[in-house]
Amino acid sequence: MIEKKQIGAKIVWPFTIPSGIITTQVSCINKIAKEIEEIGILTTKSIGPEKREGNKEPILTQYMPGCFLNAVGLTNPGAEEFAKHLSSIKMPEDKFLLVSIFGKNADEFVFVAKKLENFVDGFELNLSCPHAKGYGMQLGQDPEVVEQITRAVIIATKKPVFAKLTPNVSNIGDIARAAIKAGALGLVAINTVGPGCHIIDGNPVLTNKNGGVSGKCIMPIGVKVVKEIRDAVGPEPIIIGMGGISTARDIEAYEKAGANFFGIGSSLAGMKDIEIKNYFSALVSDLNTRRNNAAALLKDVDMNYKKVKVTGKLEQCSDFKLIKTEEKIEASPGQFVFAWIPGVGEKPFSVMDDDPLILGVLERGQFTRAINSLKAGDSFYIRGPYGKPIFIRDNSAIVLIGGGCGVAGLFLLAKKFSSTNKIIILLGAKDKKHLFHLDEFRKYGKVYVATEDGSSGEKGLVTDLLKKIVLEPNSYFFNCGPRAMIDAVLPLELAISPPDRVYSSADYMTSCGVGICGKCADERGRRTCVEGPFMVAC
To answer: Does the annotation count 129 as an active-site position?
Structure first.
């Protein structure tokens, strides 16, 4: 029988999502704390003393179904900035906020703990990250260092402390005892295994080359390590067990090995928020009834890469190109793909057209310059499509509003919805050179154009067009472009249509596409890669 348990001063349900998965943005933490009862421990990403950019994408790859490698690189905003983020939320009484922290030495761990102490229920000491040089596992392999860091944080803060341990050692019992001797309330095990490497066509997928292994494949290791820890520290210390858990039977295996609480991470890949809620509810039911219904709720996510050849490039202006390929894919309106150039990086792009695949690329950095420099006959890789497909009732009035490179995210909607709906298209750009595909757009609807310099269409902004054009009440609106544009058009649209007919796709950058990294969460905690990218206004 599964039930709530005490951790620190709180009594909570015994489930968490491990550090670095989904709850990496404070908005996500806040949303899940309020909406998913069974997740009793909210664990943050690892926070260090200073801002750290981490590794370039790809940072996550799936090398076989349900088995992943990641090398995020301890990306975080730094302790002072994260304290500001945490100050904006208040944890419910039945939720325990566990903040993961890291540093190069005891002084850095203490610095972070003191900065965050007023906003948290407890600390998880990251002594186990396997792919960040000078941090994590390199500290956590030495019992004396583990004891020193743990004791220093415990002296510095009154909040409970948990040491997160690496499985990549031969003396896990000694390390666990060292943390408990120093005063830790409990232990977290395991972090990812490895590191390992996933290679496609001779190219390491991860930009870091090596990454920690997670998912179903590491569960036997996790169970083994938890048992060794329990045997070493005795019955009293709390153990938060994790690593490959996906079903009630997995939880029972960890519980028999000695775990009190349970972390579930990689198994949530591809799930929307409501699906995560239903999954944890099913897990509790399964544990209480000896059933296995939660297994049917797991998602199959496709992170396989396909090599595609460039057939041509439509020159629009110096910083924006349309990349045309020979590949035909099946994409629904609103979906996106990732483009990957080995050794350079990976970025998501709206599917501008799927037959053949066309991507609109605005140059912003190294990767976009590289893909825009490709010539006919050159190749790159794609994965996807990802995102929530859009479905509209036939015989509806649809208004598409795009600004800048966001226009690329609207073309497939116009193309696929035009045969059964009335389409009006409003496009804005800074000048004529930054308008593209106008003749193609005109095949599918009435097009209105505004440019800031007046070189094409009306002089002004797309909002000026929206104010002048008479639109049908209850029209569907789809906005794609800069945040400022979306903020400006939303009030005008909501005066015409209810919120459930107004959709927007802003520039929330995703790094995984399958809902794991949490990087693309909006201000309401919705992960746009699985809930969007077109998000309803209500």
So the answer is: yes
CATH number given to 311-386: 2.40.30.10
Q: Which residues contact 169 (CB under 8 A, 6 or more apart)?
A: 140, 141, 175
Domain 5-297, CATH 3.30.43.10 — does that match? no
The fold of the 397-507 domain, in CATH, is Rossmann fold (3.40.50)
- How many Å apart are CA 69 and CA 205, to the nearest integer? 10
Where residue 78 falls (left for φ over 0; alpha for ψ -120 to 50; beta otherwise) is left
The DSSP-derived string for 111-144 is HHHHHHGGG-SEEEEE---SSSTTSTHHHHT-HH
For 177, phi and psi rounded to 5 degrees?
-65, -35
Phi, psi of 474 (to 5 degrees): 65, 25
* Long-range Cβ contacts of 445-449 (<8 Å, 24+ apart): 445/398, 445/400, 445/414, 445/418, 448/424
When the pLDDT of each residue in the chain is averaged and rounded to a whole number, the result is 94
pLDDT attached to residue 316 = 64
Full-prediction pTM beyond 0.90? yes
Type of residue found at 532 = G
The catalytic residue among 28, 67, 129, 512 is 129
* CB-based contacts of 518, cutoff 8 Å, min separation 6: 21, 22, 23, 24, 25, 28, 45, 527
Contact 210, 194 (CB under 8 A): yes
